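Researcher: I need the complex structure. Ligand is adenosine-5'-triphosphate. Inputs:
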Amino acid sequence: MLLEVSELSVSYAERAIVRDVNLSLAEGEVLAIVGESGSGKTTVIRAIMGCLPHEGRVSGGRILFEGKNLLENTPDEWSRLCGTKAAMVFQDSGSMLDPIRRIGSQFIEYICEHSPMTKREAARAAEDMLRKMHLPNPENIMKGYPFELSGGMRQRVGVAMAMFFTPRLLLADEPTSALDVTTQAQVVKEMMEICQKDKTAIIIVTHNIGVAAYMSDKLVVMQEGRIVESGETDDIIARPQSAYTKELLDAVPQVGGERYVG
Ligand SMILES: Nc1ncnc2c1ncn2[C@@H]1O[C@H](COP(=O)(O)OP(=O)(O)OP(=O)(O)O)[C@@H](O)[C@H]1O
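Model: Output:
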């Protein structure tokens, strides 16, 4: 297994928020975490990435990544892991970029921080990566500022940066929920293409069980900090066991007479 999370519990300022979460992920697999706002989805992936807010603390459990317990990592080991072996995409990756610096200089700096490439090599490699994310005129994008791009384009830049070092694991927190439905579908499709080619495993956190059904091999349903249902996505969609999962599925809008999750 690439990742094995067992009995994970997390507290914020001594208040237990996430309790006894178990999940596992093999190379190239896609796991979706769904559940209502506040159910602890983001907390789980932040704990895996070692980036809980400062009042947050893992109060129990284990997180094995390639067989090593991440909770024993030194700060140095975390910084070697983040960005190269494991990477994260956020709801609005544009907000992670400095608004008053050109995209190219930020992308090049990011590459040079994590590799011995020269600036010139990094620039060329960054453009190639933007092209892979179907961004037109990568040379112009490199020269532009984040605010000059649409939300979908900024999100593609975020995915391109996250995927640059072919991470083994991509953690995606509501990566498309700020986008309109058509752009959501395109960005999800492109992100999956690039991950499938590199055999990158994905954990995607989403409100949208339709997106989860489309993307994932495995599904974890969370409510109030606990897992209420988990298993193969197709099984859960066809035969949900918990009342809460049934509720989530019932809330999926009908599209053209057919369920979006169908
Ligand atoms: N920094 C923090 N300090 C204290 N409590 C927090 C902090 N961040 C989150 N929480 C609490 O932890 C709980 C879980 O939050 P989390 O963001 O993990 O949920 P979520 O399922 O990802 O929600 P959403 O879908 O809205 O992002 C919530 O009750 C939230 O109020």
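Model: Summary of the prediction. The chain is about 40% helix and 25% strand.
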